[in-house]
Design brief:
Arc Repressor Mutant, subunit A; about 150 residues; mainly alpha; about 5% strand; 7 helices; globular
């Protein structure tokens, strides 16, 4: 056995995690400009899309939908509340829960956000078929990770 072969598994060029990481980082970087006009970071945009799609929910439910922990969500939600996009409150019947809803301004931002996907079109140099296949594979991989993450 060639002594160099034992290191083949830890070569950067052989890693799946690295191109996933680098691609995700680059896509997030490219979102900066279109989101600047909305006054949102990429993570705030993801959270707002969850609210636009599902409506109000608890912080825990939101975290599960967008794969963020409370330590990341709490300050993010405070900033969105300060911007006037969400309202946070604890229901009297269960004050341990933190419920979050969109404000009128947060709901109105949805129309402004319609320009973001158009701005991002072509960001990844793949055909529509390739993009759909990539999305399916990533969804499948993420789903498999969720099932084994107990």
């Amino acid at each position: 056995m060639n002594p160099e072969d034992k290191y083949e598994r830890i070569r950067l060029r052989n890693q799946l995690c690295f191109p996933l990481y680098a691609c995700a980082k680059e896509v997030v970087r490219r979102y900066r400009e279109p989101l600047e006009g909305l006054g949102l970071t990429y993570t705030q945009y993801i959270v707002m899309m969850a609210f636009w799609e599902y409506g109000g929910m608890t912080e825990k439910e939101l975290g599960e939908k967008v794969h963020l922990d409370s330590g990341t969500l709490a300050p993010l939600l405070k900033r969105l509340e300060k911007q006037g996009y969400v309202r946070r409150f604890r229901p009297k019947e269960n004050e341990r829960l933190l419920f979050v809803t969109l404000t009128e301004a947060g709901e109105a931002l949805k129309d402004e956000a319609l320009s973001v996907p158009d701005s991002m079109q072509g960001c990844i140099a793949l055909s529509v078929e390739e993009l759909l296949a990539l999305k399916r594979l990533l969804d499948k991989a993420l789903s498999g990770m969720e099932r084994t993450d107990t």
